[in-house]
């Protein structure tokens, strides 16, 4: 239960009416885990690209938005009506298809916008500006093609509500949390246990020595964008199912928050991005349970700023030295 904008401050009497303090705490932990899952999925894409290219892909939040729209058209027009699939089968088919198509968008950005600058040896600042422009292009292209009207995402999974004492949990909330944990486990396995993951880590250490070892650096970079963009597409699909209203600028704020979560966790560190996303989710839900919802971003960003002030490299980040 959270404070509603209508009454402003949280009514303590209503909190404990029909539920214990333990139920109230558990309920808000589940809410925080759901929000943190969205942030973690997007933050993993930020930290992947930065870890390999030392590039902050500011268009990543808008790739999340594109993923939500791709999921809308895939599930609403391609799979269900065209093939006559049931809603649950539409969801099962929409997940890999949305991830694949969103990955194509991320790879296209890398091929058209980032690779030419990288090959010309452009300064990192110009690449960051290009990433910002790519994000704006995605937003306003969406606005120009589809208009400013909001779209309602179709219901793919029949909502099931389970009650455990005073705690309420839905099947969609479980799916979101499990998906975030599964993505982190798979990504951690790829990066730490596979040859391509070893190559990704090698590029982050010395991108000039890796080609001398016969490793195709462009292929590794493309694979990195495939992973990061696919996870953003999955986050867009799950977010649209949870909050089924789509609009062209939906990825702007959540993208910035996920980036901040990745920085707080330690940008470039997968574990840091994952925990940073959940940390931000817990802070936001914790603030809203005590204060009006308008204070959420103020308190959340202030707390994250204090964390960076105390530990500039993030919670799991390590100081890095540059050889001259």
UniProtKB/TrEMBL annotation:
Membrane-topology descriptor: Multi-pass membrane protein
InterPro entries: ABC_transp_permease (IPR001851), BCAA_transport_permease (IPR052157)
UniProt-listed Pfam families: BPD_transp_2
Keywords: Amino-acid transport, Cell inner membrane, Cell membrane, Membrane, Transmembrane, Transmembrane helix, Transport
Chain segments annotated as transmembrane: 38-56, 63-82, 88-109, 121-141, 161-191, 220-243, 249-267, 274-292, 298-318
Family note: Belongs to the binding-protein-dependent transport system permease family. LivHM subfamily.
Protein name: Inner-membrane translocator
Protein source organism: Pseudodesulfovibrio piezophilus (strain DSM 21447 / JCM 15486 / C1TLV30)
Gene for this chain: livH
